[in-house]
Amino acid sequence: MSLPDLTWQMVYGRLAWAIVLATLLIALVPGAWRHSRRLPLAALGLMALACLLPGQASPAWTLGLAFQYPSALLTSCCLLKLLDRRRGLRAICALPPGLAAPLAIAGAALYLDAFGLISQGYYYAGFSATGVPILAVLASAACAAAVIRDRSRRQALPLLGAFLLFSLLRLPTGNVWDAVLDPILWAWALVALATAALRRLRRLPAAHDTQPEPTPGLAADLPVLSVAGIDPYSTIKEQVSGKVSSK
């Protein structure tokens, strides 16, 4: 197990929190200002200056007490969101359901393990000195191949950034779970899944609004039956009883 240098951790923490706060700031500004392509750079510069303030004057210091460091995956997703805003792509989701679902499941397993409900030591396994580095290198290669082949690029790009940062500098904490998950990202994944589920439910037609269409062949034969003196909507019993009574 190798831990990152403390200086690199401090630099990463301030820059990562600046990117996350800039993304949140853009999400909170009014819609008329949100269309500006200069807003991402202005928000990122403002948050970077704020996070570089010394000591308790920096918001990164306060956020670090509550959440430690943002995961590399959260930072990559926020940076991708800022780039999308910069290019004018406002409708693209930086955390699609294909990425949000495994994050939500992994986060639930980690929190259940931390609370002692399953007690499998999942988090401490992220400090492994042999299996985790190999897994990170293989995951980086898989993500790079997906980006080159243009397959699931929206999921592969942030994951590639997270695994590369962990493989090269062991950031943010030396644990692979901290590189791909944190409380803010887990909450974001849950909200993204709930939003996608609500949109899918709205697209489904109501069951009581659907009416069966008449069969073309049967509809064509109805006039013929009516001409023959047989009511096509009456039952066989009613037709037989009508013929007997007529005799």
Question: Which descriptors apply to this entry?
Answer:
247 residues; mainly alpha; 13 helices; globular
What is the helical fraction, as a range of percent? 55-70%
Sketch the major β-sheet.
none
Q: Round the Cα radius of gyration to an integer and report it.
A: 30 Å
Q: Compute the number of strand runs.
A: 0
Helical stretch count? 13
Shape: globular
Average of pLDDT: 83
Q: What would a concise description of this structure say?
A:
With 247 residues, this protein is mainly alpha-helical. The protein has 13 helices and no strands. It has one domain.
Question: How would the blueprint of this fold be written?
Answer:
Blueprint (H helix, E strand, L loop, with lengths): L5 H23 L2 H4 L4 H13 L7 H9 L4 H16 L9 H18 L7 H4 L5 H18 L4 H17 L6 H5 L2 H21 L12 H12 L8 H11 L1
Helix pairs in contact: 1-3, 1-4, 1-5, 5-9, 6-11, 8-9
Give a verbal description of the structure:
- The chain is mainly α and 247 residues long.
- The chain has one domain (6-203).
- The protein is 69% helix and 0% strand.
- The chain contains 13 helices and no strands.
- The chain has helices spanning 6-28, 31-34, 39-51, 59-67, 72-87, 97-114, 122-125, 131-148, 153-169, 176-180, 183-203, 216-227, 236-246.
- Helix 1 crosses helix 3, helix 6 (97-114) packs across helix 11 and helix 8 (131-148) packs antiparallel against helix 9.
- The termini are far apart.
- Mean pLDDT is 83; it is low at 218-228.
